[in-house]
Amino acid sequence: MKLSPSSYVVLGMLGLGARSGYDVKRAVELSTRFFWTISPVQIYPELRRLEDAGLLQGRDEPRGGRARRVYDVTPAGEAALREWLMAAEELAMEVRDKGLLKLFFADALEPADALAHVRAMRERSERMVRRFREEIEPTAEGVAEGSGRRFPSIAARFGRELNEWIVQWCGDLERELGSASVVDGDGGR
Amino acid sequence: MKLSPSSYVVLGMLGLGARSGYDVKRAVELSTRFFWTISPVQIYPELRRLEDAGLLQGRDEPRGGRARRVYDVTPAGEAALREWLMAAEELAMEVRDKGLLKLFFADALEPADALAHVRAMRERSERMVRRFREEIEPTAEGVAEGSGRRFPSIAARFGRELNEWIVQWCGDLERELGSASVVDGDGGR
DNA sequence: TAGGACATGTAATGCGTTACATGATTAT
DNA sequence: ATAATCATGTAACGCATTACATGTCCTA
Question: CA 20 to 30 Å from A64, out of A38, A86, B47, B76?
Fold first, then answer.
């Protein structure tokens, strides 16, 4: 029985206090989404698999007439999570960024259009910074105050500061491209 | 006929001077790989599709007895690339980073192990910085000197500087975590 | 009383990877 | 002679998304 990183997202979220599949879904939307997306539909089958493997203990706990199944992490589940966290494996970071991809090919555009594209990239990260500030970091800090878990908040800080860095970088590039009416031989700093 | 971003990677690489599928494969490995991976196997069917759509013109050009098919971008292909580059669409950046994911759940670890994990993340980005410096940026600068195309080099600079930023960030976090944990003293073992 | 959040799924599809497969040319 | 690189694929599989589907509870 091999678990994927997505399995550990589900397992880990239950460890952080989520009880139902729906809790996991909401928690993911406010946190790991930004560095590990899983779609809502795969959460429920994953919960079943983890229960079959003995890493979760589930029971039905309907809210009124509404079906609902809640889970607890078993000692075996906690051990499996820790084992995965400590495993020395490739930590490969994969990025799929249409913005950067288009930037790469931007020589096919007029300079003004290339500049507009960099501006769009900057604005995208500005929106992300706001999103982190207003939603994600406050939620993560709530977790820290409630349970003493500090790393969700640290990961959120990474997300915000990364996007702040991108905003800065795009701003610099905009100035570089804007002032490059004259052909320069110097590649920059 | 809808083209995916991966289609435009192939189309764009031919626009940047690649001639065969194999050329595209090598170019991707040294450039877009880091923000848009496509696996070698999907390049060849993609070339056929683009040719069927009239965006490429291919012809067989064997090297000795070795089969080889080379492609030229048609005017329709150039137009399609420009149109995609200018399209106002979501530039969604997706990141799949096991390192960050594990950091998010690192409260389940002993402080010393969490610190070791941040160190591993830093070392990963240090390797990436070297990779960019030694392979990717020189290649991209070769393109710039050869053809005047500057954006591949700008994208490479983004990759290096981003990883430099991550190295910095992880270093800061290591100091923050190191000074907080009075418990372990094996930092210099 | 209607809309949104809660709660959980199924079915079909597509995308991409892994593993496998072939064979020629060039450098050592 | 052998390894590495050039060059191009096929087949099977699995993961993940999209679209669809169902029904309850709460709030304005």
Answer: A38
Among A131, A13, A23, A124, smallest CA distance to A73 is for A13
Contacts of B104 in chain A (CB under 8 A): 12, 31-32, 35, 151-152, 155
pLDDT tens, N- to C-terminus, chain B (189 residues): 688 999 999 999 999 999 999 999 999 999 999 999 999 999 999 999 999 999 999 999 988 778 899 999 999 999 999 999 999 888 888 999 999 999 999 999 999 999 999 999 999 999 999 999 999 999 999 999 989 999 999 999 999 999 999 999 999 999 999 887 555 444 444
Can you tell me whether residue A95 is helix, strand or coil?
A: strand
Nucleotides in chain D near protein beta carbons (<7 Å): 6-11, 15-19, 23-26
Q: How confident is the model at residue A8 (pLDDT cuts 50, 70, 90)?
A: very high
Q: Which nucleotide is nearest to A2 (CA to C1')?
A: D14
The single-letter DSSP state of residue B181 is: -
A45/D15 CA-to-C1' distance in Å: 13
Distance from CA of B175 to the nearest CA of A (A): 14
The DSSP line for B79-136 is HHHHHHHH------EEEEEHHHHHHHTGGGS-HHHHHHHHHHHHHHHHHHHHHIIIII
| Residue B103 to residues A135, B163, B167, B176, Cα–Cα distance (Å) | 20, 17, 15, 14
Question: Rounded to two decimals, what is the model's pTM?
Answer: 0.92
CA of B160 and C1' of D14: distance in angstroms?
33
Strand C, nucleotides < 7 Å from a protein CB: these are 6-11, 15-19, 23-26
Q: How far apart are CA A125 and CA A107, in angstroms?
A: 22
User: Nearest 5 degrees, angle CA B180-CA B127-CA B108?
Assistant: 35
Q: What is the pLDDT of residue B181?
A: 56
